[in-house]
Amino acid sequence: MENNFDLLVIGGGPGGYVCAIRAAQLGLKTACIESRGTLGGTCLNVGCIPSKSLLNSSELFSKAKNNFDSIGIETGNIKLNLKKMMTNKSKSVQILTKGVEFLFKKNKVSYIKGKGVLFSKNDVVVYQDGKKTSYKSKNIVIATGSSSTSLPGIKIDEKNIISSTGALSLEMVPKNLVIIGGGYIGLEMGSVWARLGSKVTVIEFLDHIIPGMDREVSKEFEKILRKQGIQFKLNTKVTGVKTSTGKTMVEFSNNDTKVKENLECDKVLVSVGRRPYTEGLNLSKIGVKKDEKGRIVINGKFQTSVTNIYAIGDVIKGPMLAHKAEEEGIAVAEILAGQSGHVNYDVIPGVIYTSPEVATVGKTEEELKKLKIDYKVGKFPFLANSRAKVNNESEGFVKILADSRTDKVLGVHIIGPHCGDMIAEMALAMEFGASSEDIARTCHAHPTHTEAIKEAALAVDKRPIHF
Q: Which of 251, 237, 177, 186 is CA-nearest to residue 207?
């Protein structure tokens, strides 16, 4: 009976481990299968967490080198010890992965190391170190996440042509770094290495960066990053990457003029998206259906075409975000326990952890226009926010979109200091169906960055006080 469970979760990333913990809390005999050797998935091991460590460390280095003197802090010669910075990153990751293991023990979740493969709707075989062990479960959740993808003809070797994983573990600061793709991951990694001394060039196929975000925010963000020294080649297609004698040549052409160019660099970071990790699970053999993009097809209760097998996170439709996967994991656990778990996809925030940060929740202006929804706009610049001004971090703005008829907040887009934390207030407001008037009438502490949110809400009704 020890190999029989109420729930087997395949994948120990944010979606999988959270699902397992919540299911165990609700009284289900639960196990989580993970092949990596450590819990936390891509996010904790080679994604969100290590990248935020390097973003923080590199920002402190950049400020000490370039900004401290102007505010009266004289530091002398600032030196980079990249090896120590990487060690600090790795130590943080190790502590957090061990923390997840502790949470499993605390909540009585069985942690099974190895690769899980489905053999029927109730049977999973786990392969580890040449051994295989069979397990049975009433229900199974697939939470295997995603992996980096590349462009046709460009092979990632993690030496000269690297993925985000390789970009988190470089042993030297590349003199010239080319990033293919102007999305979240590419711009975060570009910021890290630009601060540490790289000449960074971003090549993006579209005519703007961060596809899918509000276009006004995208334009402002590009302007700020250019000021920081990052170069952009937009509306540009990469046609090839060649490596010889330690140098790498990137070939590309403008989509309109078709003019071909070459750019020599030390490293190329391929950051063109991620694909669901669903290979080798035997899904087609047991009847679990996938769509044309390789994502597992589910219904409104996260059930696949095999009703006792569920799927969450990056393997299903929707933004590939750790917190989205966590919400889905909790929802599935609660559904399995007879509760009514659900996820409100209209209020899932997204954050880019550069400096300044970019944060968004809800609809963009472009989406509202496409849906033919009449809306009002309220904007407030951090230049007019006293806390941002005294902290010398006054770039960016808060932008609130509200329904013209009902005043209900439909979307919020912020570029500026600490907005990754500030966006939570707006996600909460939208979860409760708040109007811009509700936010405008809520007292915000002074002096804080969040006053910019209150002022933007006042601006929806054309009555800001400080601008």
A: 237
